[in-house]
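[Discussion] Sanity-checking designs against the backbone

I'm trying to build intuition for which residues belong where. Below is a structure token string of 366 positions. I'd appreciate it if someone posts a full sequence so I can compare it with mine line by line.
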């Protein structure tokens, strides 16, 4: 506010000098000089809070003095209107609570200045009063526009940032629904494919590596898995320690979700193999199952989009009973795959909570 006001107030000072002489230009001239001194000092010393109060005081006092000096509200071209700036500027700088004193002081200053109107003697010609009024209105309009534009820009930036943050926590479709209706989201999906991937031997790796190395390794792995999920159009649900969960077919339906998740699983194995160059000993087990799930958003302070049901439990069991570097899939997943995938039967396996089930290894895709 300080810099952009200088040309306008400086022009007003010059006009008053021409119309009425040096005495009429004294107040706006002193304001401009003091503002320049404060701005230059602010570049060398950190006193922004003090600067805001000092400048606000000058913006409040100067219009009152010019108002009295030129003979009242009409005779001064409504220069007293500038007294609205300090409370608004204080609102921008100090917030709602900090701006209240400036609002009260501004009202008192305007009231005190208007007391002089009955006894004031106009000093400017009518044409000069009109010109000065136009300058004051243009100045205040400019300030109002720039202030509102500043707040709207900040609001848009914060909205974009909050939406990006929410999109990193929840699927975009779910985040959009929550913005419209904050009530609980719970729905059943009949045909989705769930993948669990878990780092093999992570506990032993964690004993050998430094905390920084552990975090860097997990970040490298999960960043690559996020990239794969995005490339395949799948939805990352969460990470649990060193495990990664991704799903195909929700929140929006996905045709041939089993095929899509299977291709990501194969890419995941290749990605882990590439990462082994920087992280020796890195290996992964993968379990995949397809079927119905219940999905929803839980929590109030920290939202979480999660899945529940036998499909999730089965995928987790397949992962935990799998082998390093292999993709363990269920009978339902095997039957859902297109003919282009190569598989190998593992036979019948006892899975906790599920009993005897037939499982398969996913080997490759054409």
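Best answer:
Here's mine. Compare freely.
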């Amino acid at each position: 506010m300080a810099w952009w006001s200088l040309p306008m107030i400086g022009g007003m000072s010059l006009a008053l000098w021409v119309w009425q002489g040096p005495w009429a230009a004294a107040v706006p001239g002193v304001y401009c000089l003091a503002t320049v001194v404060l701005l230059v000092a602010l570049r060398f010393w950190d006193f922004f809070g003090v600067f805001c109060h000092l400048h606000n005081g000058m913006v409040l006092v100067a219009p009152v003095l010019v108002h009295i000096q030129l003979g009242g509200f009409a005779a001064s071209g409504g220069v007293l209107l500038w007294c609205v700036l300090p409370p608004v500027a204080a609102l921008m700088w100090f917030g709602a609570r900090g701006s209240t004193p400036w609002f009260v002081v501004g009202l008192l200053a305007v009231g005190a200045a208007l007391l002089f109107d009955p006894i004031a003697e106009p000093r400017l010609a009518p044409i000069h009063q009109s010109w000065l009024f136009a300058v004051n209105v243009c100045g205040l309009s400019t300030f109002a526009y720039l202030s509102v534009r500043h707040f709207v820009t900040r609001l848009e930036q914060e909205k974009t940032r909050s939406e990006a943050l929410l999109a990193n926590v929840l699927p975009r479709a779910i985040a959009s629904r929550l913005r419209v209706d904050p009530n609980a989201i719970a729905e059943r999906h009949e045909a989705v494919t769930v993948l669990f991937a878990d780092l093999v031997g992570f506990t032993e790796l964690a004993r050998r590596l430094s905390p920084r190395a552990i975090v860097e390794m997990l970040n490298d792995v999960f960043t690559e898995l996020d990239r794969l999920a995005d490339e395949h159009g799948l939805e990352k649900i969460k990470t649990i320690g060193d495990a990664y969960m991704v799903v195909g077919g929700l929140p929006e339906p996905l045709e041939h979700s089993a095929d899509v998740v299977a291709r990501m699983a194969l890419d995941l194995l290749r990605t882990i193999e590439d990462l082994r160059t920087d992280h020796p000993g890195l290996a992964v087990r993968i379990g995949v199952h397809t079927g119905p799930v219940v999905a929803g958003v839980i929590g109030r302070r920290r939202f979480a989009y999660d899945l529940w049901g036998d499909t999730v439990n089965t995928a987790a069991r397949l992962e935990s009973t799998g082998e390093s570097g292999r993709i363990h899939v269920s009978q339902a997943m095997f039957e859902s795959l297109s003919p282009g995938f190569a598989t190998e039967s593992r036979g019948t396996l006892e899975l906790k909570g599920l009993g005897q089930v037939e499982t398969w290894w996913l080997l490759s895709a054409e």
